[in-house]
From TrEMBL:
Residues 191-289 form the HTH araC/xylS-type domain. It comes from the Bacteria. PROSITE patterns: HTH_ARAC_FAMILY_1, HTH_ARAC_FAMILY_2. InterPro entries: Homeodomain-like_sf (IPR009057), HTH_AraC (IPR018060), HTH_AraC-typ_CS (IPR018062), PchR_regulatory_protein (IPR053142), Tscrpt_reg_AraC-type_HTH (IPR020449). PANTHER family: REGULATORY PROTEIN PCHR. The keyword Transcription regulation applies. One of its GO terms (molecular function) is sequence-specific DNA binding. This is AraC-type DNA-binding protein.
Length: 289
């Protein structure tokens, strides 16, 4: 079987190949073929809705919603066909990683945990994580994919960059697998947003941007988050920032401007206003008391 076309190729090294496939003319090209090389792990991120996938070697069929993904191990070279109903656009990102690269990365001889992870990968246990439903791409995964797609790095810097991003994707995937197999699943959208905010509240993040990243209407994000946690996304972000600010303000060696930046505020005036609203006193006055 001939190797897959390099159309859409973003990166290729001895161990890793990344392809971005987007069918811009669905009326002319309603189907897409994907090749999995021998002894390879394939991360497949479905970025458009209602993609059908049929594995030609075993005849298995799947229907994916937008923003779902799978990790599939192929021991032999294989092919799969992807298509959508009603001639919709097919858009997906495929990251192909050679088995030997993963073997060196995880090294199953180091611990039982490592051995279990590799065994789960080989047995394709990461295809369906919960109730036979393919996992959804998290906000953080979306950010990493966007960085990979838009990166302009070349040469060895590109190789190091790509490998670091793939390792981060694998970590997030393993964590997601563990979470869904140890605790009862909470509503997907609120828990996904909360995790992202908890890790990034000190950055200049907005609900609108989160919505664009995961392809979900911002109004739906606001509604479901408040229903689950009884607070708006914006107020939750503000509360986390103020809690951090109150901890930092007692250290008089840190400038107010530095605290503002550390808490995600671009302008110190906005930080001072928010601080005073929350605690009834300005940060400068609190320091003198």
């Amino acid at each position: 079987m001939k190797d897959q076309s390099d159309r859409g190729l973003l990166f290729r090294s001895e161990d890793i190949k990344i392809l971005m496939q987007e069918n811009s003319y669905p009326e002319k090209f309603s189907r897409s073929n994907m090749i999995e090389s021998k002894s390879s792990f394939n991360l497949l991120f479905l970025l458009s809705p209602n993609i059908n996938l049929e594995a030609q070697d075993c005849g298995s069929k799947f229907l994916f919603k937008k923003n779902q993904y799978i990790l599939h191990f192929s021991s032999e070279e294989s092919a799969a066909e992807l298509w959508t109903e009603n001639q919709e656009i097919i858009k997906y990102l495929q990251i192909q990683i050679h088995y030997n690269y993963i073997l060196k990365l995880i090294n199953p001889e180091e611990s039982k945990e490592n051995a279990d992870i590799l065994e789960n990968m080989i047995r394709n246990n990461y295809i369906f994580l919960h109730k036979q439903t393919p996992p959804y791409i998290t906000v953080e995964m979306h950010m990493i994919l966007r960085e990979i797609i838009s990166s302009s790095k070349k040469g060895v810097m590109q190789k190091l960059f790509v490998e670091a991003k793939i390792i981060k994707l694998l970590i997030l995937m393993f964590e997601q697998f563990d979470e869904k197999n140890t605790v009862e699943e909470t509503p997907r959208i609120p828990s996904m947003i909360k995790k992202f905010v908890d890790e990034n509240y000190n950055k200049n993040i907005k609900v609108e941007e989160i919505g664009k990243l995961i392809g979900i209407n911002q109004n739906k994000i606001r509604k479901e988050f408040k229903a689950q946690y009884h607070v708006t996304v914006s107020d939750y972000i503000a509360d986390l920032r103020m809690l951090k600010a109150k901890k930092l303000i007692i250290n008089k060696e840190i400038m107010i401007k530095e605290i503002a930046i550390e808490c995600g505020y671009e302008y110190v005036q906005n930080f001072t206003r928010a601080f005073k609203k929350k605690f009834g006193v300005s940060p400068e006055k609190l320091r003198t008391e």
